[in-house]
Amino acid sequence: MRCLVPVATNSPKSRLAPVLSPAERRTFARAMLLDVLSTLVAADCQPTVLATDSIDDDQITNRATIAVDDRPLTPAINARLAEGEPTLIVMADLPLIEPQDIIQLTDSDADVTVAPGLGGGTNALAIHDPSFRVDYHGASYLDHCRAADEVGASVETVDSRRLATDIDEPTDLAEILIHGDGAAAEWLTAAGFELDTTGGRVGVVRE
Amino acid sequence: MRCLVPVATNSPKSRLAPVLSPAERRTFARAMLLDVLSTLVAADCQPTVLATDSIDDDQITNRATIAVDDRPLTPAINARLAEGEPTLIVMADLPLIEPQDIIQLTDSDADVTVAPGLGGGTNALAIHDPSFRVDYHGASYLDHCRAADEVGASVETVDSRRLATDIDEPTDLAEILIHGDGAAAEWLTAAGFELDTTGGRVGVVRE
Fold it and tell me: What residues of B are in contact with residue A203 (Cβ under 8 Å)?
């Protein structure tokens, strides 16, 4: 099935501003994207990065086709879904995912298979029903379940910690240091981040 | 295999103090425990609640045996592990778990199977190696992987969002309202909590 990875190229990951500069957020977002693309390629997908602006970066173009669409996420995705092809959509900030997580999505028999993110978002969708449309605003996981229901599509929810772990906020960085072994983990370590085990949940500190 | 659910009966869930009174935290913790025990029974386990004090509550004693041990979590569990029996340990604050998540743990061929929690904790352990001991302090997931390695035990990590979602902090309550359908979800709804979709990640508000 077709595989899309939406990417907003301008000022990504704004909620990491307390711990990373704008330039750092860009290079860190790129590292996470490389992890996601490598996993998709290892799972035999041929990803297309659906970017708000052109991307001139060998490491990305070696792993993916680039398609430019400067519309916001929801209309940009829905324009592709309107073409009626089965489509896998995977967010670019999931550096922990492994090939078997993607295969769980692509092998599902449901019309719409959803991987919820922590806090009610939608981190991945495998869509076989040509009438299903996305809406990424707010608690999109519940909205997507309802939307599938409304078009009579069967829904499966994937239960995966790795697919659920999107990296948005400073505390999320701990998950990469605990479980990651790819480009994002290397970048964070090189940038001086380490685990902080002094509080309740493990956080991060920067040297 | 033997199945233990450790429970601290005095002042549970202190990190929920910003949104729940001490009495509410006790009844909410009980609702989560009932969800966990129901799932364990449905997965053909015969759970023992390892409690710091006696529990006189029909709904709990209908689902589990009670064993009292007033020591802290780590020594209380390790005293049981020293008896050498294969043991499943499941935390009491995992109201989203389903029987198949437990079966993933009990069916694993590894000497030690770990379900990490968000933020580096350990939410469940299936232990077949009689020399393995727990240490629940700090980033216990990484510590448990290392401890297994040190005694030559094979390790498997279970990838489950439901097993990873322990309920410690106010934002965690959103996960129950999004995904839950048991006693904890009913309790929260009856207590006036609803989803708050105004921020980045979905949170909760109380009426």
Answer: 119
Kindly report the CATH class assigned to A2-167. Answer: alpha beta
- Contacts of A38 by beta carbon, 8 Å cutoff, 6+ apart: A63, A182, A183
- pLDDT for A62 beyond 80: yes
Both tokens assigned to B67 = 């064993």
Cα separations in angstroms, B161 against A144, A158, A160, A165, B69:
18, 9, 5, 9, 30
From first CA to last CA, the distance across chain A in angstroms is 44
Question: Which residue in B97, B118, B166 has the most chain A C-beta atoms within 10 A of its own C-beta, making it the best mutation to test that interface?
Answer: B118
ipTM: 0.94
Helix (H) / strand (E) element for A110: namely: none
Q: What is the full per-residue pLDDT of chain B (207 aa) written as tens digits?
A: 999 999 998 878 999 999 999 999 999 999 999 999 999 999 999 999 999 999 999 999 999 999 999 999 999 999 999 999 999 999 999 999 999 999 999 999 999 999 999 999 999 999 999 999 999 988 899 999 999 999 999 999 999 999 999 999 999 999 999 999 999 999 999 999 999 887 667 777 877
Distance of CA A79 to the CA centre of its chain: 19
The structure's pTM equals: 0.95
**For chain A, which residues lie within 8 Å of any Cβ of chain B, measuring from their own Cβ?**
15, 98, 101, 116, 118-121, 138-139, 141-142, 159-165, 168-169, 171, 174-175, 178-179, 195, 197, 200-203
DSSP characters for A21-41? -HHHHHHHHHHHHHHHHHHHH
- Cα separation, B117 vs B141, whole angstroms: 8
Q: How far apart are CA A34 and CA A97, in angstroms?
A: 12
CATH architecture of B2-163: Alpha-Beta Complex (3.90)
